[in-house]
Amino acid sequence: MSNVWTPGSNRREFLKMSAAASAAGAGLLPLAGGAQGAPLNFFTWSAAVDTVKSHLTAFEAKTGIKVNYNNAPWAQYRDTMVTKFVGKAPIDVLWVSDSWLPEWADAGWITPVNGYPELMKYNEGTDDFCVKSMQYKGKQYGLTYYSDYMAFFYDEEMLKKAGIKEPPQTWEEVVQQSARIKQAGLSQYPLMLSMARESWLIEFLTAMVYSNGGRFTDDNGAALMADPKRGAGQALQWVVDAVNKHKIVSPACVETGELNGLKSFTSGNHAFAMLGRYRIRTLNDPKQSQIAGRVKQALMPAGPGGSHATVGWMRFYGMTAQAAADKARAANAAKLIEWFGGKADGKYQFQKMLFTDIGSGFGVKELFKDPDIQASYQKYSDLAMFERQQQLARKKDVVARWFGEWDEVNGTAWQSAIVGKSTPADALKKSAQAWNDMRKQA
User: Range of 299's domain?
Assistant: First the structure.
Protein backbone atom coordinates (compact mmCIF):
# COMPACT_ATOMS: atom_id res chain seq x y z
CA MET A 1 0.00 0.00 0.00
CA SER A 2 2.97 2.26 -0.12
CA ASN A 3 3.05 2.62 -3.91
CA VAL A 4 3.70 6.15 -5.08
CA TRP A 5 3.98 6.07 -8.87
CA THR A 6 2.94 3.43 -11.34
CA PRO A 7 5.87 1.39 -12.75
CA GLY A 8 7.82 3.24 -15.39
CA SER A 9 5.93 6.48 -14.86
CA ASN A 10 7.89 9.70 -15.03
CA ARG A 11 7.23 13.38 -15.46
CA ARG A 12 7.81 13.42 -19.22
CA GLU A 13 5.30 10.60 -19.67
CA PHE A 14 2.87 12.47 -17.45
CA LEU A 15 3.10 15.57 -19.65
CA LYS A 16 2.52 13.49 -22.77
CA MET A 17 -0.47 11.80 -21.16
CA SER A 18 -1.92 15.12 -20.01
CA ALA A 19 -1.69 16.52 -23.53
CA ALA A 20 -3.37 13.45 -24.95
CA ALA A 21 -6.10 13.65 -22.31
CA SER A 22 -6.72 17.31 -23.17
CA ALA A 23 -7.32 16.37 -26.77
CA ALA A 24 -9.70 13.64 -25.72
CA GLY A 25 -11.44 15.77 -23.12
CA ALA A 26 -14.53 16.29 -25.22
CA GLY A 27 -15.26 12.60 -24.90
CA LEU A 28 -15.39 12.73 -21.11
CA LEU A 29 -18.39 13.62 -19.03
CA PRO A 30 -18.85 17.32 -18.26
CA LEU A 31 -18.89 18.64 -14.73
CA ALA A 32 -22.17 17.94 -12.97
CA GLY A 33 -24.38 20.83 -11.92
CA GLY A 34 -23.68 22.56 -8.64
CA ALA A 35 -27.18 22.45 -7.20
CA GLN A 36 -27.23 21.55 -3.52
CA GLY A 37 -29.31 18.46 -4.20
CA ALA A 38 -27.08 17.14 -7.00
CA PRO A 39 -25.22 13.92 -6.08
CA LEU A 40 -21.59 14.16 -5.05
CA ASN A 41 -19.04 12.22 -7.08
CA PHE A 42 -16.65 10.16 -4.94
CA PHE A 43 -13.67 8.30 -6.43
CA THR A 44 -11.27 5.85 -4.73
CA TRP A 45 -8.93 3.06 -5.66
CA SER A 46 -10.29 -0.47 -5.42
CA ALA A 47 -9.68 -1.18 -1.74
CA ALA A 48 -12.22 -2.15 0.93
CA VAL A 49 -14.98 -1.49 -1.60
CA ASP A 50 -17.75 -3.15 0.43
CA THR A 51 -16.72 -1.23 3.55
CA VAL A 52 -16.77 2.05 1.59
CA LYS A 53 -20.21 1.30 0.18
CA SER A 54 -21.58 0.44 3.61
CA HIS A 55 -20.29 3.69 5.10
CA LEU A 56 -21.65 5.64 2.14
CA THR A 57 -25.10 4.17 2.65
CA ALA A 58 -25.02 5.35 6.25
CA PHE A 59 -23.88 8.82 5.12
CA GLU A 60 -26.72 9.15 2.64
CA ALA A 61 -29.26 8.02 5.24
CA LYS A 62 -27.87 10.45 7.82
CA THR A 63 -27.50 13.54 5.62
CA GLY A 64 -29.85 13.03 2.69
CA ILE A 65 -26.92 13.78 0.37
CA LYS A 66 -26.64 11.34 -2.53
CA VAL A 67 -23.23 10.09 -3.66
CA ASN A 68 -22.09 8.53 -6.92
CA TYR A 69 -19.24 6.16 -6.07
CA ASN A 70 -16.60 4.86 -8.49
CA ASN A 71 -13.17 3.29 -8.13
CA ALA A 72 -10.18 2.13 -10.16
CA PRO A 73 -7.37 -0.36 -9.47
CA TRP A 74 -4.48 1.10 -7.50
CA ALA A 75 -1.98 0.39 -10.29
CA GLN A 76 -3.96 2.58 -12.71
CA TYR A 77 -5.44 5.02 -10.22
CA ARG A 78 -3.06 7.95 -10.58
CA ASP A 79 -3.10 7.90 -14.38
CA THR A 80 -6.88 7.47 -14.35
CA MET A 81 -7.37 10.48 -12.13
CA VAL A 82 -4.97 12.69 -14.09
CA THR A 83 -6.88 11.90 -17.25
CA LYS A 84 -10.15 12.75 -15.55
CA PHE A 85 -8.77 15.99 -14.12
CA VAL A 86 -7.52 17.15 -17.50
CA GLY A 87 -10.83 16.18 -19.11
CA LYS A 88 -12.84 17.95 -16.39
CA ALA A 89 -14.74 14.81 -15.47
CA PRO A 90 -17.09 15.21 -12.48
CA ILE A 91 -15.21 14.44 -9.25
CA ASP A 92 -15.82 16.10 -5.88
CA VAL A 93 -14.08 13.97 -3.24
CA LEU A 94 -11.34 11.42 -3.81
CA TRP A 95 -8.55 9.43 -2.22
CA VAL A 96 -5.12 11.04 -2.62
CA SER A 97 -1.62 9.71 -1.97
CA ASP A 98 0.74 11.99 -0.11
CA SER A 99 3.24 11.51 -2.93
CA TRP A 100 0.91 13.08 -5.49
CA LEU A 101 0.06 16.15 -3.41
CA PRO A 102 2.56 18.63 -4.94
CA GLU A 103 1.66 17.62 -8.48
CA TRP A 104 -2.10 17.75 -8.00
CA ALA A 105 -2.07 20.91 -5.86
CA ASP A 106 0.15 22.87 -8.25
CA ALA A 107 -2.02 21.79 -11.16
CA GLY A 108 -5.06 23.19 -9.36
CA TRP A 109 -6.89 19.87 -9.35
CA ILE A 110 -7.37 19.66 -5.60
CA THR A 111 -8.06 22.49 -3.19
CA PRO A 112 -6.98 23.37 0.38
CA VAL A 113 -9.43 22.69 3.20
CA ASN A 114 -8.06 25.30 5.63
CA GLY A 115 -11.32 27.23 5.32
CA TYR A 116 -13.34 24.37 6.83
CA PRO A 117 -12.97 24.47 10.63
CA GLU A 118 -15.08 21.31 10.90
CA LEU A 119 -12.20 19.51 9.16
CA MET A 120 -9.21 21.34 10.60
CA LYS A 121 -10.29 20.56 14.17
CA TYR A 122 -9.13 16.96 13.68
CA ASN A 123 -5.46 17.92 13.40
CA GLU A 124 -5.03 18.00 17.16
CA GLY A 125 -5.94 14.32 17.46
CA THR A 126 -3.99 13.19 14.39
CA ASP A 127 -0.38 12.01 14.34
CA ASP A 128 2.02 14.76 13.38
CA PHE A 129 3.54 13.03 10.36
CA CYS A 130 0.04 12.52 8.95
CA VAL A 131 -0.87 16.18 9.31
CA LYS A 132 2.40 17.27 7.72
CA SER A 133 1.89 14.80 4.88
CA MET A 134 -1.37 16.57 3.97
CA GLN A 135 0.24 20.01 3.92
CA TYR A 136 1.88 21.73 0.98
CA LYS A 137 3.11 25.30 0.72
CA GLY A 138 1.50 26.19 4.02
CA LYS A 139 -1.94 24.79 3.22
CA GLN A 140 -3.71 21.56 4.12
CA TYR A 141 -5.48 19.47 1.51
CA GLY A 142 -7.60 16.91 3.35
CA LEU A 143 -8.21 14.44 6.17
CA THR A 144 -6.45 11.13 6.78
CA TYR A 145 -7.81 7.97 5.20
CA TYR A 146 -5.03 5.52 6.05
CA SER A 147 -1.48 5.68 7.35
CA ASP A 148 1.35 3.31 8.18
CA TYR A 149 5.12 3.12 8.43
CA MET A 150 8.15 0.96 7.76
CA ALA A 151 8.69 -1.43 10.68
CA PHE A 152 11.44 -3.76 11.90
CA PHE A 153 10.42 -7.37 12.65
CA TYR A 154 12.26 -10.33 14.11
CA ASP A 155 11.70 -14.07 14.49
CA GLU A 156 11.80 -14.52 18.27
CA GLU A 157 12.31 -18.27 18.08
CA MET A 158 15.32 -18.00 15.79
CA LEU A 159 16.94 -15.45 18.08
CA LYS A 160 16.41 -17.72 21.08
CA LYS A 161 18.01 -20.65 19.26
CA ALA A 162 21.07 -18.47 18.68
CA GLY A 163 21.17 -17.55 22.39
CA ILE A 164 19.96 -13.99 21.81
CA LYS A 165 17.64 -12.69 24.51
CA GLU A 166 16.64 -9.29 23.13
CA PRO A 167 16.22 -7.90 19.60
CA PRO A 168 18.83 -5.45 18.30
CA GLN A 169 18.59 -1.81 19.30
CA THR A 170 21.18 -0.53 16.82
CA TRP A 171 22.27 -1.38 13.28
CA GLU A 172 25.62 -2.45 14.75
CA GLU A 173 23.77 -4.98 16.91
CA VAL A 174 21.92 -6.21 13.81
CA VAL A 175 25.33 -7.09 12.35
CA GLN A 176 26.48 -8.74 15.58
CA GLN A 177 23.33 -10.79 16.09
CA SER A 178 23.20 -11.77 12.43
CA ALA A 179 26.76 -13.10 12.69
CA ARG A 180 25.74 -15.30 15.64
CA ILE A 181 22.71 -16.57 13.73
CA LYS A 182 24.86 -17.39 10.69
CA GLN A 183 27.43 -19.17 12.87
CA ALA A 184 24.64 -21.25 14.42
CA GLY A 185 23.59 -22.33 10.93
CA LEU A 186 20.10 -20.93 11.36
CA SER A 187 20.06 -18.58 8.37
CA GLN A 188 22.43 -17.84 5.52
CA TYR A 189 21.20 -14.26 5.24
CA PRO A 190 19.62 -13.28 8.58
CA LEU A 191 18.37 -9.85 7.45
CA MET A 192 15.82 -9.57 4.66
CA LEU A 193 16.01 -6.31 2.73
CA SER A 194 14.00 -5.64 -0.42
CA MET A 195 16.05 -3.42 -2.70
CA ALA A 196 14.41 -4.04 -6.06
CA ARG A 197 13.52 -0.98 -8.10
CA GLU A 198 9.83 -0.72 -7.39
CA SER A 199 7.59 1.83 -5.69
CA TRP A 200 8.32 0.37 -2.24
CA LEU A 201 12.05 1.07 -2.54
CA ILE A 202 11.95 4.69 -1.39
CA GLU A 203 10.21 3.61 1.83
CA PHE A 204 12.98 1.11 2.64
CA LEU A 205 15.73 3.59 1.81
CA THR A 206 14.16 6.44 3.77
CA ALA A 207 13.72 4.30 6.88
CA MET A 208 17.41 3.43 6.70
CA VAL A 209 18.40 7.06 6.18
CA TYR A 210 16.21 8.45 8.98
CA SER A 211 17.28 5.84 11.53
CA ASN A 212 20.90 6.70 10.72
CA GLY A 213 20.25 10.36 11.43
CA GLY A 214 20.37 11.45 7.80
CA ARG A 215 18.09 13.10 5.26
CA PHE A 216 17.63 13.23 1.51
CA THR A 217 16.77 16.95 1.42
CA ASP A 218 17.00 19.95 3.73
CA ASP A 219 14.15 22.11 5.02
CA ASN A 220 14.23 24.19 1.84
CA GLY A 221 13.99 21.16 -0.44
CA ALA A 222 17.60 21.20 -1.66
CA ALA A 223 19.49 17.93 -2.05
CA LEU A 224 21.23 16.82 1.13
CA MET A 225 21.75 13.12 0.41
CA ALA A 226 25.40 13.53 -0.63
CA ASP A 227 26.36 15.55 2.47
CA PRO A 228 28.84 13.32 4.36
CA LYS A 229 27.58 14.46 7.76
CA ARG A 230 23.84 14.93 7.31
CA GLY A 231 23.00 12.91 4.21
CA ALA A 232 22.40 9.28 3.28
CA GLY A 233 26.00 8.09 3.16
CA GLN A 234 26.01 6.28 6.51
CA ALA A 235 22.86 4.36 5.62
CA LEU A 236 24.03 3.36 2.15
CA GLN A 237 27.45 2.30 3.44
CA TRP A 238 25.76 0.09 6.03
CA VAL A 239 23.73 -1.68 3.32
CA VAL A 240 26.80 -2.08 1.10
CA ASP A 241 28.76 -3.61 3.98
CA ALA A 242 25.85 -5.83 5.02
CA VAL A 243 25.81 -7.37 1.54
CA ASN A 244 29.49 -7.45 0.63
CA LYS A 245 31.49 -7.42 3.88
CA HIS A 246 29.33 -9.03 6.56
CA LYS A 247 27.27 -11.10 4.10
CA ILE A 248 24.17 -10.92 6.27
CA VAL A 249 21.98 -9.64 3.43
CA SER A 250 21.63 -11.54 0.17
CA PRO A 251 23.26 -9.93 -2.90
CA ALA A 252 20.00 -10.82 -4.62
CA CYS A 253 18.32 -8.09 -2.54
CA VAL A 254 18.55 -5.75 -5.55
CA GLU A 255 16.19 -8.12 -7.37
CA THR A 256 13.92 -8.83 -4.41
CA GLY A 257 10.66 -6.91 -4.34
CA GLU A 258 8.61 -6.29 -1.23
CA LEU A 259 6.15 -9.13 -1.83
CA ASN A 260 8.86 -11.72 -2.53
CA GLY A 261 10.74 -10.48 0.51
CA LEU A 262 7.63 -10.96 2.61
CA LYS A 263 7.22 -14.51 1.30
CA SER A 264 10.86 -15.31 2.04
CA PHE A 265 10.51 -14.08 5.61
CA THR A 266 7.28 -16.02 6.21
CA SER A 267 9.08 -19.14 4.95
CA GLY A 268 11.51 -18.95 7.86
CA ASN A 269 14.56 -17.95 5.84
CA HIS A 270 15.51 -14.89 7.90
CA ALA A 271 15.72 -13.64 11.47
CA PHE A 272 15.02 -9.98 10.70
CA ALA A 273 13.03 -8.04 8.12
CA MET A 274 11.99 -4.50 7.28
CA LEU A 275 8.40 -4.42 6.05
CA GLY A 276 5.33 -2.24 6.20
CA ARG A 277 3.91 -2.39 9.73
CA TYR A 278 0.59 -3.78 8.51
CA ARG A 279 2.35 -6.94 7.29
CA ILE A 280 2.42 -8.21 10.89
CA ARG A 281 -1.08 -9.56 10.42
CA THR A 282 0.13 -11.79 7.57
CA LEU A 283 3.35 -12.71 9.35
CA ASN A 284 1.49 -14.16 12.33
CA ASP A 285 -1.35 -15.78 10.37
CA PRO A 286 -0.88 -19.61 10.37
CA LYS A 287 -2.67 -19.81 7.00
CA GLN A 288 -0.13 -17.48 5.37
CA SER A 289 3.08 -17.85 7.36
CA GLN A 290 5.29 -20.72 8.45
CA ILE A 291 6.58 -18.61 11.34
CA ALA A 292 3.20 -17.50 12.65
CA GLY A 293 3.23 -16.69 16.35
CA ARG A 294 6.99 -16.12 16.33
CA VAL A 295 7.19 -12.68 14.74
CA LYS A 296 7.59 -9.63 16.97
CA GLN A 297 8.05 -5.96 16.21
CA ALA A 298 10.99 -4.01 17.59
CA LEU A 299 11.85 -0.35 17.25
CA MET A 300 13.75 0.52 14.08
CA PRO A 301 17.46 0.01 14.90
CA ALA A 302 19.46 3.23 15.33
CA GLY A 303 22.67 4.08 13.55
CA PRO A 304 25.60 5.99 15.16
CA GLY A 305 24.22 9.42 15.95
CA GLY A 306 20.82 8.32 14.71
CA SER A 307 17.59 7.27 16.40
CA HIS A 308 14.71 4.83 16.18
CA ALA A 309 13.00 7.06 13.60
CA THR A 310 11.29 5.54 10.60
CA VAL A 311 9.37 6.73 7.56
CA GLY A 312 5.60 6.93 7.48
CA TRP A 313 3.19 7.28 4.60
CA MET A 314 -0.44 8.22 4.42
CA ARG A 315 -3.41 8.62 2.12
CA PHE A 316 -6.14 11.19 2.55
CA TYR A 317 -9.54 12.44 1.42
CA GLY A 318 -9.18 15.45 -0.84
CA MET A 319 -11.64 17.92 -2.33
CA THR A 320 -11.39 18.92 -5.97
CA ALA A 321 -11.29 22.48 -7.20
CA GLN A 322 -14.48 21.69 -9.12
CA ALA A 323 -16.33 20.99 -5.89
CA ALA A 324 -14.86 24.05 -4.17
CA ALA A 325 -16.10 26.32 -6.98
CA ASP A 326 -19.69 25.86 -5.80
CA LYS A 327 -20.32 26.87 -2.17
CA ALA A 328 -23.20 24.45 -1.52
CA ARG A 329 -21.45 21.57 -3.24
CA ALA A 330 -18.24 22.28 -1.33
CA ALA A 331 -20.15 22.22 1.97
CA ASN A 332 -21.56 18.80 1.10
CA ALA A 333 -18.12 17.58 0.05
CA ALA A 334 -16.72 18.69 3.42
CA LYS A 335 -19.44 16.67 5.16
CA LEU A 336 -18.46 13.59 3.16
CA ILE A 337 -14.78 14.08 3.97
CA GLU A 338 -15.56 14.41 7.67
CA TRP A 339 -17.80 11.34 7.62
CA PHE A 340 -14.94 9.22 6.29
CA GLY A 341 -11.79 10.95 7.55
CA GLY A 342 -13.11 12.39 10.79
CA LYS A 343 -15.88 11.28 13.09
CA ALA A 344 -19.24 9.89 12.01
CA ASP A 345 -21.85 10.16 14.75
CA GLY A 346 -19.10 11.10 17.21
CA LYS A 347 -16.73 8.21 16.46
CA TYR A 348 -13.85 7.45 14.07
CA GLN A 349 -15.90 4.74 12.45
CA PHE A 350 -14.32 4.29 9.04
CA GLN A 351 -10.67 4.08 10.11
CA LYS A 352 -11.70 1.61 12.79
CA MET A 353 -13.58 -0.49 10.26
CA LEU A 354 -10.58 -0.58 7.95
CA PHE A 355 -8.37 -1.70 10.81
CA THR A 356 -10.64 -4.48 12.01
CA ASP A 357 -11.51 -5.62 8.46
CA ILE A 358 -8.11 -5.61 6.74
CA GLY A 359 -5.57 -4.57 9.38
CA SER A 360 -4.69 -1.22 7.80
CA GLY A 361 -3.13 1.50 9.94
CA PHE A 362 -4.74 4.67 11.17
CA GLY A 363 -3.53 8.19 11.88
CA VAL A 364 -5.71 9.20 14.83
CA LYS A 365 -4.34 8.86 18.34
CA GLU A 366 -7.48 7.92 20.24
CA LEU A 367 -7.95 4.69 18.31
CA PHE A 368 -4.95 3.22 20.12
CA LYS A 369 -7.13 3.34 23.25
CA ASP A 370 -10.16 1.74 21.61
CA PRO A 371 -10.96 -1.58 23.42
CA ASP A 372 -12.02 -3.32 20.19
CA ILE A 373 -8.79 -2.37 18.43
CA GLN A 374 -6.72 -3.40 21.44
CA ALA A 375 -8.42 -6.80 21.57
CA SER A 376 -8.10 -7.31 17.82
CA TYR A 377 -4.41 -6.41 17.61
CA GLN A 378 -3.49 -8.43 20.67
CA LYS A 379 -4.25 -11.58 18.68
CA TYR A 380 -1.18 -11.09 16.49
CA SER A 381 1.04 -8.29 17.83
CA ASP A 382 1.80 -5.62 20.43
CA LEU A 383 -0.31 -2.46 20.06
CA ALA A 384 1.93 -0.51 22.44
CA MET A 385 4.90 -1.12 20.12
CA PHE A 386 2.77 -0.17 17.11
CA GLU A 387 1.95 3.16 18.77
CA ARG A 388 5.46 3.78 20.10
CA GLN A 389 7.06 3.41 16.68
CA GLN A 390 4.34 5.45 14.98
CA GLN A 391 5.18 8.36 17.26
CA LEU A 392 8.67 8.27 15.74
CA ALA A 393 7.49 8.14 12.13
CA ARG A 394 8.30 11.03 9.79
CA LYS A 395 7.02 11.96 6.35
CA LYS A 396 9.20 11.42 3.29
CA ASP A 397 11.33 14.48 2.53
CA VAL A 398 11.44 13.83 -1.22
CA VAL A 399 7.79 14.44 -2.07
CA ALA A 400 7.89 16.86 -4.99
CA ARG A 401 6.49 17.17 -8.50
CA TRP A 402 9.62 15.55 -9.92
CA PHE A 403 9.74 12.78 -7.33
CA GLY A 404 8.80 9.94 -9.67
CA GLU A 405 11.52 10.69 -12.21
CA TRP A 406 14.17 11.29 -9.53
CA ASP A 407 13.16 8.11 -7.71
CA GLU A 408 14.25 6.05 -10.70
CA VAL A 409 17.69 7.71 -10.71
CA ASN A 410 18.11 7.37 -6.96
CA GLY A 411 17.07 3.72 -6.87
CA THR A 412 19.50 2.86 -9.64
CA ALA A 413 22.29 4.75 -7.84
CA TRP A 414 21.77 2.81 -4.60
CA GLN A 415 21.70 -0.48 -6.46
CA SER A 416 24.91 0.44 -8.28
CA ALA A 417 26.69 0.93 -4.96
CA ILE A 418 25.27 -2.28 -3.48
CA VAL A 419 26.53 -4.41 -6.37
CA GLY A 420 29.93 -2.69 -6.36
CA LYS A 421 29.69 -0.73 -9.60
CA SER A 422 30.18 2.60 -7.81
CA THR A 423 31.15 3.89 -4.41
CA PRO A 424 28.42 5.04 -2.02
CA ALA A 425 29.75 8.60 -2.28
CA ASP A 426 29.61 8.62 -6.08
CA ALA A 427 26.14 7.05 -6.07
CA LEU A 428 24.78 9.74 -3.78
CA LYS A 429 26.46 12.52 -5.77
CA LYS A 430 24.63 11.26 -8.84
CA SER A 431 21.35 11.18 -6.91
CA ALA A 432 21.89 14.70 -5.55
CA GLN A 433 22.80 16.11 -8.96
CA ALA A 434 19.68 14.61 -10.51
CA TRP A 435 17.52 16.06 -7.73
CA ASN A 436 18.97 19.54 -8.07
CA ASP A 437 18.72 19.49 -11.87
CA MET A 438 15.07 18.44 -11.79
CA ARG A 439 14.32 20.98 -9.08
CA LYS A 440 15.71 23.80 -11.25
CA GLN A 441 13.67 22.67 -14.23
CA ALA A 442 10.41 22.35 -12.30
Answer: 149-311+396-441
